[in-house]
Amino acid sequence: MQSHSLFLSDLFPRAGLIATKVKLVRYSLLQPGPSEAFSLNQLFEYSQLQKPKFFENIDYVLVFVGAKGNTAKFIGCYSTTGIELPLKEDLLPKTFPKSLLRNPNNVFHPLEETAIFKDLENRLFIDWQADEDIWYQTGQIDKPVLYIQNTGKYVYQGSQSVVLSFDELEEIVMDPILYASWHTALSTMTAIYLITDLEAGIHFIGSSYTPNSILSTWSQFVETHHGNYHIVHSHLLEHPENYRKFQFSILQVLPNIIEEDDIFEIKKLYRKKLGKNARIIEN
């Protein structure tokens, strides 16, 4: 049996947290709701949508994310307010997906961001030690600290903020431990993406959808430079070193279920917006 020297609860006294007043929440990024909120950097807002009395007698909530297995990555520590409000759209940012407001059992619990464990956000990993369908627990249950990773140069801040050079993307793809937040988000995301050759001024509009993710698609560009797409390969035959000038960004996150014809129409719309130098990558 593996022994552990450090547990999550060992950190509570220094921060002034009382274990009985702490709730731990772990969102699975394999679930569509948390995955969409996380990809838009709105997991804090999503955490405020809970059933009545969810935070009763709780002072602080520690939010984690996970995928397969029991590993959970720490996202943030938030303080409760004891307030419950009927759920209304105007309580949340305009960019918050309306699809995540449809649970009739939820109310709005205002939470407040704190500086507690700020230096451990996106770096602290624990063993959740429970079945994957158990998504919240009390802070009294010991959670082994698995590791605290170093901080990468590039911080994932949501799909709308993704703008990466080829070299930056290469570093992120090649280091899944240091850039675990990127790998977690991009491996569960399907989207319309844009590759811009900053030297030639050419735009390539592509799409990645089930069963492929943005991570798997962009990893092919890191490996082959052209992603195994004819139109990009032809461009690089004329400009062999221009892959180093490629800039990668995300135009639109796609729902889990969407028709290929609808995706193509979205790409055509972006080509119209970007002008004559825009090309569509055919899947």
From TrEMBL:
Name of the featured protein: Uncharacterized protein
